[in-house]
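Support request, priority: normal
Reporter: lab tech (M.K.)
Component: structure prediction queue

Hi team, I submitted a job for MICLK protein from Rynchops niger yesterday, and the status page still shows it as pending. I've pasted the exact input below so you can check whether something in the sequence is tripping the parser. The sequence length should be 160 residues. Please let me know if I need to resubmit or if it's stuck on your end.
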Amino acid sequence: RKQTTEYSTSSSDDEFESKPSLTHKAKRTLRRRRKLEKETKQLIKQEELKRLHKAQAIQRQLEELEERQRALEIFGVKLERELRGESDSGTKDETQMLHEWFELVLEKNKLMRYESELLIIAQELELEDHQSRLEQKLREKMAIDDSLKDEMDLNEEDEI
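Reply from support: The job had stalled in the queue. We restarted it manually and it finished. Here are the results:
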């Protein structure tokens, strides 16, 4: 009897010891998963901040560009009046005024190309942001066990 009791106690002790090791492994795995999720969220947040700073820089450049275009427009109107003889400044030679006019047109075209480039970059940032949000949403959907999802959730996951 004593041996049987000791045997059963020792086997139940073994079971008891093995269960905590399983829960310890599960806890460790859960901690790793949480740590990975936290790191992923931090990376996503950093990427969002980078995109935000780029977008703000682009917005500032677009505002500066708009001011330069307005100044060129004002100068162009003045130059055009001089070329037509509507202005009283007869001191400038017509060929020099035409040269200034063409330089003005070239500068304006250059600014318009630059504006187009900035707008494309801004659109690219918007698309990157949209993609990042969709990836995050998909990660959240995929983290849920399939048995807990209804048909609408599965369809939404497929759509994403």
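The CA atoms of residues 84 and 139 lie 66 Å apart. The chain is about 90% helix and 0% strand. Let us know if anything else looks off. Ticket resolved.
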